[in-house]
Amino acid sequence: MKSGLITVFLGFCLLNLTGCMGVASPVAGWAYTDAKFGNQVTDGAAATKTGTACATSILTMVGTGDASQERAMANGGITQVTYVDHSAKNILGIWGEYCTIVHGS
Predict the structure, then answer these.
(1) Contact at 8 Å (CB) between 89 and 28?
(2) What is the distance between the alpha carbons of residues 79 and 21, in angstroms, rounded to a whole number?
(3) How many Å apart are CA 98 and CA 67, to the nearest integer?
(4) Averaged over 44-62, what is the pLDDT?
(5) Can you give the C-alpha Rg of the chain in angstroms?
């Protein structure tokens, strides 16, 4: 049993060396990533509220959460979107977080 766990652990370590990243980002760092980026801007009124929604990845094997724009809008009480940003964090493929940040009114 112990040798099986060691084999799985070593296999996971080797998989991480391939550059796989459990969180989408416009830039990738094998050891650490912390990036913010945007992809949507509207002609809406000036932003007075911000809402955030995040999803988490553990060991690039388990992912959970709701990082949707709809969830971020609900979390911030936003009905009209002005712009949307995203953030991505990843630490050695062990822990990753992807967030959608909605600004609006």
Answers:
(1) no
(2) 33
(3) 7
(4) 89
(5) 17
Q: Which of 96, 100, 103, 85 is nearest to 34 (CA)?
A: 96
Helix/strand/coil for 82: strand
Between vectors from CA 77 to CA 98 and to CA 68, what angle results, nearest 5°? Answer: 25
Decide if pLDDT at 40 tops 80. Answer: no
- Strands across the sheet containing 62-65: 32-41, 81-91, 95-104, 49-58, 62-65
What per-residue confidence (pLDDT) applies to 33?
83
Cα 68 off chain centre by: 11
Of 27, 32, 37, residue with least CA distance to 16: 32
**Helix intervals (H) in 1-105:** 2-16, 69-76
How far apart (Å, rounded) are the C-alpha atoms in residues 72 and 87?
13
